[in-house]
Write a structure and sequence with these properties.
- The complex is a heterodimer of chains A (about 325) and B (about 280).
- Chain A is of the alpha/beta class.
- Chain A folds into 2 domains: about 5-245, 3-Layer(aba) Sandwich (Rossmann fold); about 250-310, Alpha-Beta Plaits, CATH 3.30.70.
- In chain A, about 35% of the residues lie in helices and about 30% in strands.
- Chain A is built from 12 helices and 13 strands.
- Chain A has helices at about 20-30, 65-70, 90-95, 115-125, 130-145, 160-170, 190-205, 215-225, 240-250, 290-300, 315-325, 330-334; strands spanning about 5-15, 35-45, 50-55, 80-85, 100-105, 175-180, 210-215, 225-230, 235-240, 250-260, 270-275, 280-285, 305-310.
- The longest helix of chain A has 18 residues, at about 190-205.
- Chain B has helices at about 10-25, 30-55, 65-75, 85-95, 100, 110-140, 155-185, 190-205, 220-225, 230-240, 245-275.
- Chain B has one domain.
- Chain B is built from 11 helices and no strands.
- Chain B is globular and about 65 Å long.
- Chain B is about 70% helix and about 0% strand.
- Chain B has about 280 residues and is an all-alpha fold.
- Chains A and B meet through α3, β5, α4 and α5 of A and α1 and α5 of B.
């Protein structure tokens, strides 16, 4: 049986509508109009033990609402949800003892306390026996390189340092499932790589199931074997990254550096999508024209310094998927 | 190797109390500043009452002057014990970090009650002792023996006061948690917090000793929970409430605590169900 089963999850919120301006604010006091937002509109999926699943979607698509329902802090209006055989919101205490959660934009560490004291508090809150705690802590210190940070009060940590400490904090009680809500948001390149390596290793070596929401497509490419795309409360796509790519477009991109920046490119089976001085980027469908054939035609007409073929970046794929389903602010979210 | 036992179910709550306690004890400069302000306020109030008592007829005095003086000093010393919002909880509700609080395998009401215990006791301990030393020993040394905090009316009154104070703390924490729970509905909660803080300091006797308020107000004050926070224990201390009636006071304190804890537990369940965690 899958570790996580979600079936037909629905959650609606009432949002008060305000008319802008002072007069609107005054009128809002007397009569308020509410708009119903369907944050989750029949979401279903299941996840096996040990999977590393990416969960992506534009802002307000329902990612965080799903994570909150899965972690038991939000009660949906309809639908079924079981995590390790438990309904998260009715068996909240037993459930949360076995999951770890990181909300990237917030910290679970105590602002005024040194990091290690936060760890000790979490040990007590999760009632982890001392020996087990010491082992988990030492592993985290080593893998996340925390030794120099332990005695620093959390408010003095940089964002990257804080995120590493937050990851450790979420794992001290050795949860079987880890929910990560935008764990790389705002991090610099080095910290992002460190966080990604850690998540990958955790999933591979300990078999921890990881569900990761993100706007960073590099996270997805680097980590996830499976991607779920949500927009307007509905799952648009669920499967391996390659499958998502194939479903949305077969398109490839050929980028060439011309010797003559002014040369006109006329090619029936490919379209110029970008031109920047000497550099030209062409989109083509490999089933219409083989890459080798296209390159032969181009090199026979033009002097070319360099060229390469690539897949469109995952950002483009996802933006097209959102656009195809009329997601409200698909492009803006990327 | 013998498997290590899992720590007991009380462990999380003790840990929270002790961590908050240690953190709050760091705010020493605030405590010292508060001490000066409160000494000043206490002296001002006592001078006002002295002026009143010199001019009013003897029959109009519901409390002896010495009883008023000890009432004022106890109020200044124990100000921090009165119910108030937990700034941490308020910040969490606002920022959405409350989500983490709900991800802890603990009973939320008990967790918040534990927080309230720490928030009410730590600053009180920092302030009460120096305030008592100033009022009981410092003032006589300055030649102001009339205005000093006198010892309890009797040994029994002192013991009754101590027990009533512990019960007042339990009640203050129950009210504090109710204020915190209100944040689940109002989010910012500044209105409720200010309203409750003002109401509590007036109705518990912090502004004016309750026996000095008009006769028509007395039955109302008696039926509200707030007198049990400060007024009743202070009057036990000075002998204004006879030792024989202490049991009645304790009974009222405990009954109110039980009722408000039950109310809080019911409300927190509803609040969690309707709560929208802020952001993302």
């Amino acid at each position: 049986m899958p570790q996580i089963v979600v079936e037909g999850l629905v959650k609606t919120f009432q949002v008060a509508e305000r008319t802008p301006g002072l007069w609107g604010a005054v009128r809002g006091l007397a009569r308020r109009r509410y708009r119903t937002v369907r944050a989750l509109d029949g979401v279903s999926f299941s996840i096996e033990r040990g999977e590393l699943v990416g969960y992506i979607g534009p802002n307000g698509a329902g990612k965080s609402t799903t994570v909150k329902a899965l972690s038991g802090i939000l009660v949906p209006d309809a639908g079924r949800c079981e995590v390790a055989g438990r309904v998260p919101w009715t068996q909240r205490i037993a459930h949360v003892a076995e999951i770890g959660v990181v909300f990237g934009q917030r910290t679970q560490l105590w602002w005024d306390l040194p990091v290690v004291e936060s760890f000790e508090l979490l040990r007590d809150i999760y009632r982890v026996p001392q020996a087990r705690y010491a082992r988990a802590r030492d592993t985290m210190i080593e893998r996340l390189d925390l030794a120099a940070l332990l005695d620093v009060p959390v408010r003095q940590l940089s964002l990257g340092q804080r995120m590493r400490c937050d990851l450790a904090a979420a794992l001290l009680h050795a949860p079987a499932i880890l929910f990560l809500d935008e764990p790389t948001i705002g991090l610099d390149a080095v910290s992002k790589l460190a966080v990604r390596d850690f998540i990958k290793q955790l999933n591979r070596d300990e078999g921890v199931t990881v569900i990761l929401t993100t706007h960073d497509m590099d996270d997805i490419e680097a980590l996830c074997t499976r991607v779920m795309v949500i927009a307007s409360g509905k799952i648009l796509s669920d499967g391996p990254l390659a499958e998502l790519r194939a479903r949305v477009t077969r398109e490839r991109w050929l980028t060439v550096d011309l010797v003559d920046a002014a040369a006109a490119i006329e090619e029936a089976d490919a379209t110029v999508i970008r031109r920047d001085g000497h550099r030209v980027c062409l989109a083509f469908d490999p089933q219409v024209v083989a890459p080798a054939e296209l390159i032969r035609r181009l090199t026979s007409h033009h002097a070319i310094r360099d060229l390469f073929v690539e897949n469109p970046p995952i950002e483009t794929i996802v933006a097209r998927l959102y656009a195809a389903h009329g997601a409200p602010d698909g492009a803006g979210a990327l | 190797m013998i498997a290590e036992a899992r720590p007991g179910p009380w462990r999380p709550y003790c840990a929270i109390v002790s961590a908050r306690f240690r953190m709050l004890l760091q705010y020493r400069s605030a405590a010292i500043a508060g001490l000066f302000t409160q000494a000043f306020f206490g002296l001002t109030l006592i001078m006002i009452y002295e002026a009143f008592y010199r001019s009013a007829a003897v029959s109009a005095r519901p409390m002896a002057f010495a009883q008023i003086v000890s009432y004022v000093w106890l109020a200044q010393a124990l100000l921090a014990m009165l119910p108030n919002v937990d700034a941490d909880v308020r910040a969490m509700v606002r920022s959405g970090a409350i989500a983490y609080e709900l991800c802890r395998p603990v009973d939320l009401y008990s967790l918040w009650y534990a927080r309230a215990v720490a928030h009410r006791t730590a600053p009180t301990m920092l302030r009460a002792a120096p305030m008592a030393v100033f009022a009981a020993i410092g003032l006589p040394l300055l030649g102001l023996g009339e205005w000093r905090l006198a010892p309890p009316a009797s040994l029994a009154a002192g013991a009754g006061f101590a027990v009533a104070l512990v019960c007042a703390l339990a009640l203050a924490c129950a009210i504090s948690v109710l204020i915190n729970i209100s944040l689940l509905w109002t989010v910012s909660g500044d209105g409720i917090v200010m309203l409750v803080a003002t109401a509590v300091s007036l109705l518990s006797g912090l502004v004016v000793p309750l026996p000095l308020l008009p006769d028509w107000a007395q039955p109302i004050l008696r039926w509200l929970p707030f007198a049990a926070l400060a007024d009743l224990p202070f009057r036990i201390y000075s002998g204004h409430i006879a030792v024989g009636s202490v049991a009645v006071v304790l009974g009222r304190q405990l009954a109110w605590t039980a009722a408000l804890v039950a109310l809080g537990r019911w409300l927190i369940g509803r609040g969690m169900r309707r709560m929208v965690v802020q952001g993302g």
